[in-house]
Amino acid sequence: MSRPDYIPSLDGLRGIAALLVVQAHIGLIFPSTTSHLVTVGSEAVGLFFALSGFLMAHLYGSRPVTRENVLDFLVSRFARIYPVYLVAVLLVAMLSGMPTLNFVQPIAGGMDFVRHVLLLGSRGVFWSIPPEIQFYLLFPILWLCLARPHRYSGLIAGFAIVVAVDGLLELPGPGIMLLSKLPYFLFGALAGGMHSHLERWTPSALMGIFTLLLLAVFFTYRHVLPNFSPEFWGLQSAAAAAAIVALVARQPPIAGHFLAAAPLRFLGTISFSLYLFHVPIMFLVHRSFEALLPEPALIAAALFVALGGAWFLHETIEVPSRRLLVTFWQHHRWRLVSRQAPAERIEQAILDLQETEKRLLGGAASAPAADLREKTGRTVIQDDGDEKLRA
Fold it and tell me: Cross-referenced PANTHER family, in alphabetical order (predicted)?
């Protein structure tokens, strides 16, 4: 965790969001607790979206927008999301196929299973994965805007219009389409793009207290003031989520120390596996031990097993599959990135002729053609090596 772009407090923020999603689903497994719990699952998912937008802009926004970098980005994000997501879909489909279990969030039939495999399903927590993937596909365009804002001002204006229309239409939040979630990603990306420009700002302890207070208000205001904003999804909550992520990323005193604590960072590390698997794990614990344990002990046991199971799945499926796919891509990426379009080959040929002409005019005419080819070959090999090191 010593990467220069790693921000420990954001891991802790992600861990809190994941834990609140789990808490929101306790009533799904244990219906008797519903009247005693205040759930903030929507707020947690909205924060996830803003955090995702922030990290994409923070990690990639300053890099040049080349075909190689864009392909690396897309492969990295696919490897991060899809393999462990597919395992979760398979597990839920298997539990759904056992009528005696009566699983709480079933994938109903073969067509529903195919929709989820193709990232078109919305059962349970799976509804939030398609918008995430759609944002990754959109991000290269946003990447251009971050890298060259003056050149792509028209695109930036287009994004602003989409956000304004989204706010006016008040589209429902949950669902597999990106449009209603786009403000969370975009505001988060804007915060991520601005992060490097705030390096000279050193937040105070008072700002740390304010950050924690803002986080608490974000999660509770709908329940404390239900008439103020009965619906969560909207531009105001997207802006608030992005502001929280931006403040936490500056790691202000008190808030930074709290969110960077080891237990919260651990939850952040396993957050995606915990998000995907907590419902089936808690459901199986409930069905297995409901006759043996009183409900409070059963809830505690289900939470403990969900955390342990998420850690195990993170270590055995999420991380190895991501590493395997990224390594495979790095070993074979040259087959794609080395292919040049016809126009690029023509342009390169012209540049080669111009370089040869300069050498001839500069007195290099006496150099044998073989030496020239040898030097050119060494240059190409060195470039390939540099590309592999950068990958």
Answer: ACETYLTRANSFERASE, BLR2367 PROTEIN
